[in-house]
Amino acid sequence: MLLSFLRFFQSDARHFQIVSQTIFVCIGVVFLRWDYSFTAISLTFGTALSIQLIGIYLLKLPLHSIKSALITAFGLTLLFKSNEPMLYALAAAIAIGQKFIFKIRGQHLFNPANVGIIAVILFTNNAWISPAQWGNSTVIVFVIGTAGLAVLSRVKRMDTGLIFIATLFALEYYRTIVFLGWNWEVLLHKLSSGSIWLFALFMITDPMTIPTNRTVRIIWTMAVAFTSFYLTNYHFVTGAPLWALVCFTPLTPLLNKFFPSKTFNWIHSTQKQFNHDTKIAY
Amino acid sequence: MTQRLLIKAAALLVLLSSVNAYSFCGFYVAKADATLFNNKSEIILVRDGTRTSITMSNDFKGDVRDFAMVVPVPVVLQEGDIKVVDRRIFETLDAYSSPRLVEYYDTNPCYQVVELDEANWSAQVTSTDAGVRMKYDMVETKFNVTIEAEYTVGEYDIALLSAKESTGLKNYLIQEGYKIPATAESVLEPYIKSNMKFFVVKVNLDNQKNSGFDYLRPIQINFDHPKFMLPIRLGMANSTGEQDMIVYAFTKTGRVECTNYRTVKVPTDRNIPLYTKDIFGEFYKNLFTRAYSREGKNAVMLEYAWNVTPSWGGMKCDPCVGNPPIYNDFAEAGVWWAGWNSASPVFFTRLHVRYSNAKFPADLTFQITPNTENFQARYILTHPAGGPFDCDESQDYLESLRSRRKVEVDELYALAGIKPNNRSDNYINEFVSFMINKPYDSMLKGEVIPGENSPMDPSEIEVDEAYIHSDMEANEAFLQNENPDKKNKPWEVPIFLGSIVGLALFVSRKRTKE
Prior knowledge:
Chain A is mostly helical.
């Protein structure tokens, strides 16, 4: 029983992601005392899951795709803020609905949670994100980091997360320490923000919306990091990584066309990893 | 047990009494060797789009000849962008938004009567006076410092400097007779590199004498720049300890929130014992220390947030502890859009930051959010019903009163580390003599005089300093009482999410197998 559960749990990297995100929301609500509304959380999950189920029914998608909707709902719960509970439903509807509409050759144009948040902020003026809500705690960065690496090692997208952080680190190092002359604490303060790590390890790394060719993916990630750095420091944009990402994900299908590689598949990719792991284990 | 609420706003006005010296984002650069101690500053921050107005309060206590201040600003200010305002605006805003006590009255369970009483407050009107002189000059010195402009505004001589490198700026300021902290140079450098200008203020002694004020009035600056921040790092150049800063922020859309430190609400709507009324200042001071320590000493604390649009007739606080700001006040505070014939909304956020060198390594940056949720720091006193307690219901009432008071005493410790003492025992057992079945634990205490309520002296309280300065989660009593209103129960979120995740995985697992 336990063994079969473990086998099942290991069979899909999204399981790790879902468990990690559940832990993050709980840390935020219980220990960091985030404001939350139960109605808003229920609406987010309710809308995301229902629309995904409709999609599954109409488009004959595999039922396991419900897990992706769950991940998107968690992404929204972790980042999105509004006074109006219905806007949570709207964000979830846009996030999931756009997956069925904006598609080029079977590939998504946008990261679901990302575009849901940005669209509602842009069109309603009653939503926002709080990049400082995680604070700058090494404990939280450690928790997010460990969970993130556990997930990414299974989908082989570790490179994206780490390159994003490394590029940002290099740029911020140059600007903050070399150019402006602040001390190390200022740099560490900037880069120990839980939001940046969450973005790097749990949002930008969504395998469905990043280029599959490794070299292209690395360049693409660096471009997102650079844009985000530029928007933060020269245009004082709050939540710049989200704005940068929403500009870059639509390039992915195009890049995949010119630089083809094997299309990502959640179950296969993890299964292979799983088989590999078990071979070593036995 | 019926408990009717009755309202009376009780004023309060805490002002962290021990802190009366002034500082701001800038550092002191004393001209004489006076030892200057800076601990608390107040800022009015008004923002819409990219336009910002910052008013810096001036609670300077030393000899005015020693006063000098350097503040980094993003652009060269024109003379019309600088104003001297009346200090009373800070008092008005502080009184209106500070943490408050509210009193409720139990009704006698034997007679149910409701009585309503409203606090009455006299109006305060402030006026503006800004004598302005102008002198524009531009000098390229050997220090690589450009004097972009020089003005005399009110009792201040103001210079706007831009510099190429920090050593030149430091040497220039020293030559001009300012006493620069040894560590200032390294702090000046980043501001110079990010192309900021320096707003340098000294007191013009003649104008100061003629102005008729025996104190220095607040300076207000206006500029247009996308940067929305307060440069606190410069103010730490000559400070090792903690400094308090209260920010009164005004926007059109909603709350101001910090984007590089957490913005956390102070505990609110908590029931505390009646005798806390006499020591409310002490209570809040300790409560703040406890709250900010619990957040790791690196969070910005929210004390008040409310829609205060002057033309809007809705309730602006509950209860109000001062007059709502009126048109004159908004004009004085630099809220340029809140004129007589304007219907534009005004949203008021009060943030309290206690910063130190180690915990706040970077300047504060802010964003305006559309968050219009109201918030106030409010603490509740509940008066017991008057006697006689001669009906059956009164026994239930007395029992519940006693357990309520136990919780209040626990809260006092949990919130502000104030230890239970004889007075709290008396308080809990005040009505035991009316109870037919005396509670066992009350027998162990000495005789209690009902209704005994001599004013409490602050010296009577004993504060658990180790507790209020720690970041540990509180004891069991605290967790139980965390949300007396029980609107939010954080544990329902993990349970809810757990079930959703479990269900979704279960369903998808079954189908995947098939």
